[in-house]
């Protein structure tokens, strides 16, 4: 039995796979302690599968602990040790702004308070030590760290990615004399150039690691008491790692939850199509989108979370604040807005009947007939139509609109936020979304899929049976993976096959033991001399430099339209991943009950239409024309007129829109 559990802002999803069929469940999240919801989900899904904890072979977990702590600034009290004169690096940052002409846009507050910035009297340059680090200075730094009452310390010295001796000495002394203190050293977290990004990543690692350590410690203790295996944790790179390893490296799991969904989308796209899909994960709090090509999710080496840079390998997921619990509101100019504020799990949308009074996307969907007021949602949530009507009516009065028009407006505005996110990962990168299938998942994703597909001129939708819990499915099918990277700055006579192989071998050694039989994935980042940014090129562990240069030139021409035959090529950074393939999973649903058929009124294009409703797990060969609603166990798929849906042997619903 393989087990995957993913924690979202509103619901916690669990999937159990016994080698033949999937068993799924969705329960409310417990924001005060996510591990409580995880354990409820585990117990419920094992009961549904008729299994005991002893039968579970592996338990993979995706979480939002780090993400939430970063967004709400609730991590550990952290100090920063930096080279004297550079302790304000996080305040200085970069000159680039999210909005070019908004000169006064506020920056994210630095995670290190002024009184917790410790200046180290030492200096290392590109060619080695400029000012030595004395033993007296080490003692002073330890004393300052002790006096700061910090729970964690980040160390980021100049040029430590090339010459880490000073940074290593400080880290060793702090760990020896203050063993209760968590220490993150930049040469261990991110041995790459670009000082600001290295410092930001190291600080985030130190800020989150104590929190993750406590959470994963509680979860590990609880799983051992119940006879479950030690959980592995989804990392931002799209692979799982042992919980103890994840607890020591907080920055590596910030995108733990979204990464599981992206891997699940890649799995489904590869099993049911040509592997090219746009993954679209809409939960209760946010929407995550990604692009899958040939069954593989795109990766990136940097992104911002809450306005703070993390420069580590991670799946390329773009997130917007548009989920089922996103709240509709009137802005100062009188316009209807939706999100990013969410009703979350507590109190939730008004229609959940838990004390929520503000109108959300879920409330609007209920008023438009896409949800059945007489049925429960996954997790046993009963819907209160009157509460939803009251909440939407109050916003309608503020806007001077009818309640029904307001509900339609809430859904349209939320859809546009998600369309914008999908355009970021496609159109803005020169990719035509019409060449991809839309793969919606998350509890709310399939409900909005047809409208979003129409906006992007996409004609095909794939909605798997497990769409409501696809992130949890991605977890249990994930590879084991470790990543590392190093800036090497090789050019000219230094750029030889032997030197490259030595650097790759050193990276492999730094990743430690445990994945001896793993496959390697090496990426070389190159640029023409004088350029400011690099292009990634895949290769083996001992590449021919001339071949690397040629592949770089070809990629440069593909990306920018030209190559420079006379330009010198620099190898800037080498990235290495060791990957142990995960289990093969064929997501066939467990045998379900009878399919219920009925109909109800739902609103499409401003008109009420009678829509066919199929409740339960539709068997293979089922075929339905829109307007129709598939009420799956953990999600709802809504198809307007003009769509035709067919169910294949894996219970995946493949819908196509008639071409005009």
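Sequence proposed for the structure above (660 residues):
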């Amino acid at each position: 039995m393989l087990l995957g559990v993913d924690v979202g802002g509103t619901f916690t999803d669990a999937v159990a796979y016994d080698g033949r069929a999937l068993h799924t469940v969705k329960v409310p999240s417990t924001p005060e302690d996510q591990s409580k919801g995880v354990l409820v989900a585990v117990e419920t899904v094992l009961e549904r599968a008729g299994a005991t904890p002893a039968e579970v072979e592996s338990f993979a977990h995706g979480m939002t602990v780090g993400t939430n702590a970063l967004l709400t600034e609730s991590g550990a009290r952290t100090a920063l040790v930096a080279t004297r004169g550079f302790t304000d690096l996080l305040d200085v940052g970069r000159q680039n702004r999210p909005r070019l002409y908004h000169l006064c846009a506020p920056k994210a507050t630095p995670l290190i308070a002024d009184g917790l910035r410790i200046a180290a009297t030492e200096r290392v340059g590109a060619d080695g030590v400029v000012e030595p680090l004395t033993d007296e200075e080490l003692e002073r730094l330890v004393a300052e760290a002790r006096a700061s009452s910090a729970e964690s310390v980040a160390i980021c010295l100049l040029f430590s990615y090339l010459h880490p001796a000073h940074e290593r000495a400080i880290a060793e002394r702090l760990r020896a004399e203050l063993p209760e203190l968590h220490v993150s050293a930049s040469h261990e977290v991110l041995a790459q150039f670009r000082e600001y990004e290295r410092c930001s990543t190291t600080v985030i690692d130190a800020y989150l690691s104590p929190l993750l350590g406590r959470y994963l410690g509680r979860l590990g203790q609880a799983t051992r008491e119940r006879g479950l295996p030690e959980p592995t944790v989804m990392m931002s790179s799209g692979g799982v790692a042992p919980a103890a390893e994840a607890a020591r490296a907080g920055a590596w799991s910030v995108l733990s939850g979204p990464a599981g969904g992206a891997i699940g989308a890649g799995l489904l796209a590869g099993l049911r199509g040509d592997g090219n899909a746009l993954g679209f994960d809409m939960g209760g709090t946010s929407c995550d989108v990604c692009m899958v090509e040939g069954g593989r999710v795109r990766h990136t080496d940097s992104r911002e979370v809450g306005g703070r840079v993390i420069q580590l390998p991670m799946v390329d997921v773009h997130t917007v604040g548009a989920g089922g619990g996103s709240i509709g509101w009137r802005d100062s100019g009188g316009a209807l807005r939706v999100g990013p504020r969410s009703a979350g799990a507590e109190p939730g949308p008004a229609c959940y009947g838990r004390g929520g009074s503000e109108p959300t996307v879920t409330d609007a969907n209920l008023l438009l007939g896409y949800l059945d007021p007489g049925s429960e949602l996954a997790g046993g949530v009963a819907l209160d139509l009157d509460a939803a009507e009251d909440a939407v009516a109050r916003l309608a009065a503020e806007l001077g609109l009818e309640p029904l028009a307001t509900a339609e407006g809430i859904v349209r505005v939320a859809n546009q936020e998600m369309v914008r996110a999908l355009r970021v990962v496609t159109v803005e990168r020169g990719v035509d979304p019409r060449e991809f299938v839309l793969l919606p998942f998350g509890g709310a994703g399939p409900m909005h899929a047809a409208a979003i597909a129409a906006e992007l001129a996409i004609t095909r939708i794939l909605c798997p049976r497990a769409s409501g819990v696809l992130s949890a499915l991605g977890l249990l099918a994930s590879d084991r993976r470790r990543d590392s990277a190093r800036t090497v700055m090789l050019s000219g006579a230094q750029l030889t096959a032997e030197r490259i192989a030595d650097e790759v071998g050193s990276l492999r050694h730094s990743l430690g033991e445990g994945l001896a039989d793993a496959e390697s994935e090496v990426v070389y980042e190159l640029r023409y001399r004088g350029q400011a940014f690099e292009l990634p090129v895949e290769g083996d562990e001992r590449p021919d430099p001339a071949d690397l240069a040629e592949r770089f030139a070809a990629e440069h021409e593909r990306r920018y339209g030209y190559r420079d035959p006379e330009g010198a090529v620099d190898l800037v950074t080498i990235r290495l991943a060791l990957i142990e393939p995960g289990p093969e999973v064929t997501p066939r649903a467990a045998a379900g009950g009878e399919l219920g058929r009925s109909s109800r009124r739902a609103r499409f294009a401003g008109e009420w239409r009678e829509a066919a409703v199929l409740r339960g797990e539709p068997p293979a060969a089922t075929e339905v024309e829109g307007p129709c609603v598939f009420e799956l166990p953990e999600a709802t798929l809504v198809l307007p007129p003009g769509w035709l849906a067919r169910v294949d042997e894996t219970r995946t619903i493949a819908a196509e829109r008639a071409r005009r």
